[in-house]
Amino acid sequence: MQEEVISFEVANHKISINKPNFCKLLGLVPSKVVIKPNSIPDTSLIEMFYQMGYTGDISLLLKFKKSFLPPIWNSLFTILFKSLSERVAGSNSASNMFYNLLFGLFNGVNLDFGFVIWAQLLQSIIRPLDTQKFRVLVSSRSWSKNI
């Protein structure tokens, strides 16, 4: 399996970075005991939302609405979602991986945060049917793209 590498140019200087170096730069050096994203059961995620003070029906994650979270958690959810997601649409329909990220932060779980951030970055840059040779990232905060 070929290693994923992102190459970019800054001030006419070409830079390439892989996931291990990316995680190291962010201070997210993986430990030997780490929980993989998407491995946390939905029931644990639902329980976490109730522990946060969620007030609506969330018998299924598909029913999640961030407006039912207390203001502090609603704000954190929005900030993280907008920082890690390229979508401009509402933040109620987050991915399971995003819920796992929130679970790790809320419970202090040793989650592979580097994997989540790296996957979101790659998803923002690369598309399965993408025919473009390059993308210009206009905002490191939201990793949005300018086409």
Describe the structure.
The chain is of the alpha+beta class. The chain has one domain. It is 39% helix and 13% strand. It is built from five helices and four strands. It has helices at residues 19-25, 42-52, 71-84, 96-107, 113-125, and strands spanning 5-10, 13-18, 136-139, 144-146. The strands form two sheets. The protein has a two-stranded antiparallel sheet. A hairpin with a 2-residue loop joins β1 and β2 (13-18). It is elongated and about 50 Å long. 17% of the residues are buried. The model is unreliable at 142-147 (pLDDT under 50).
Give structural attributes.
single chain; 147 residues; alpha+beta; two-stranded antiparallel sheet; two-stranded antiparallel ribbon; 4 strands; 39% helix; 13% strand; elongated; disordered C terminus
What global shape is seen? elongated
Mean pLDDT: 78
Q: Between the first and last Cα atoms, what is the distance in angstroms?
A: 30 Å
Q: How many domains?
A: 1
Order of helices and strands: EEHHHHHEE
Strand content: 5-15%
